[in-house]
Amino acid sequence: MLSQLNIENVAVIEKAQANFQEGLNVLTGETGAGKSILIDSINAILGNRTSRDLVRTGTGKACIRAVFTQIPEGVRNKLEEAGYPGEEELLIYREITAEGKSSCRINGLPATAAVLRDICGELISIHGQHDSQSLTNPAKHLGVLDAYAQNRGEYQAYHEKYRELIGVKRQVDRLKAEESQRRERVDLLEYQVEEIQSARLQEGESQALEQRRKVVSHAQGIMEQLAGALAALNGQEDFGGAADLLGAASNSISYAAQLDESLKPYADRLGELYYAARELAADLASEEESYQFDPAEQEAIEARLDLIHRLKQKYGSTEEEILEYAEKARQELETIQNADQTLAELDLKLHTLYKEARDLAAVLTQTRLDAFERMNREITGVLGFLNMPGIRFVLQHSTGPLAGSGQDSVEFLISANKGEEPKPLAKIASGGELSRIMLAIKSALAEKDDIPTIIYDEIDTGVSGLAAGRIGQVLKGTSKGRQILCITHTARIAAMADMHLLIRKEVEGERTFTKIHELNQEKRVEEVARIISGDQITPTSLANARELIAGGTP
């Protein structure tokens, strides 16, 4: 619970300390005295958004410190998980500079506002005047029902399944949306793969074809040169060839070598040249036959090179790159074709997940319906005590498509008078009635959560007389075993306090200050009398105050 709150340079509060205790802590004061500053300060401690307007004029920063005791186990666990010591006392510090910068500390260690919100959200619940008006918004009713139902486990089980369902559905929707594009892509890839495969390319083929084209295009000239070479080797009718001359030379030297053996090496060398010339002539004659000019071959080469050129323009600068492109296209084609199988599998999974989510949603629905029956009895009993007899609550419930919170659409309807048809709260409930309905709901929820401190900011708005006294009694009863902080303008509620704090605006010199005073018994009587009669406290109002306080003290 909140044991101590220290405020420094916040709005018109220069320096103030408020001590709180278990039970009902009442805060009173005239309108504009600064009670809202306390709520703003506590909101800052809770990690909520702050503004530099909170900083007292002429100062550099505002500082707020809060001490919590009797820390719930769940909060201690969160502190340890976040890296903070889970001690018996919890010190929260928030600083806001005049430039609008903010810093936080938990037990002296740096923290973020998000961590404060996560941890302190389980320490304090603030109910302001606008919260009663929120009851007129049906969108808030499901949260109230779930809080009473304590169905976090069922909700979590459903929500996780629903998220999985939505994830798979998005995949299915994406694949179906892309289906026409995939069909177009498949057609293109199939055409490209077929075009490349049908060409039967070989690596380095164009280079070989270019060389062959050069040979074919010059075949006639090559043949003429070969014929000239053969004529030079073999000779013609009117002259002998080089081979014949080498033969004659070989014969001459061979004859001479018979007379002089030293000439024999020359004879052997000439003999080798002669036979080499004859062999070369035979080879050239064979080559000459292969250079017969064939126009069809030239056309085929040109056509093939043209095909390869067109493929290069589309798929790569070399045969290797074209073949690599074809392989990648085949792989992509296979992946896309597998998408149909993937889609079929996802459709089946989607059907299964939908059924599982629908079953879990039905379980969640039942927890809500059962909870409303119990909550209705409890709230109706409290409202009867709060001078709203004959009130009837009805849950307007319908199921629809699965959504993040389940399949349920709910709204609380109310019949404030016997014989009237239940209608939405916004149409029939006054401000005072909404305050009492909200208090009844909060009272019902009080035993359902572990939040040790509840703050009511003017829960008595629009209520007076017997109903106000009954509100005080409900607050008093709810405060047993926990801490209630209540800002009120009602004497009957103030008289119920276990601790009474007065927030008063005082002027010193040229400055206005707001101070917080812890009232003793005598001062409590005076403050309750002031609430009863206004500025002019009379013996009668003092007597009435003593009577109220005596009646509100166990």
Which percent band covers the strand fraction?
Answer: 15-25%
Radius of gyration using CA atoms only: 50 Å
CA-based shape: elongated
First-last Cα distance: 22 Å
User: Could you describe the largest sheet, including whether it forms a barrel?
Assistant: 6 strands, antiparallel
Strand line-up in the sheet with most strands = 2-1-4-5-6-7
Mean of the pLDDT scores? 84
Backbone structural class: alpha+beta
Beta strand count: 17
Number of helices: 19
What level of helicity do the residues show? 55-70%
What would you say this structure looks like, in words?
Helix 8 runs antiparallel to helix 12 (295-315). It contains 19 helices and 17 strands. The protein is elongated, with a radius of gyration of 50 Å. By secondary structure, the protein is of the alpha+beta class. Among the domains are: 205-317, no CATH class; 520-554, no CATH class. The strands form 4 sheets. The chain has a 6-stranded antiparallel sheet. 31% of the residues are buried. The two termini are 22 Å apart. 57% of the residues lie in helices and 19% in strands. The model has no long low-confidence stretch (mean pLDDT 84).
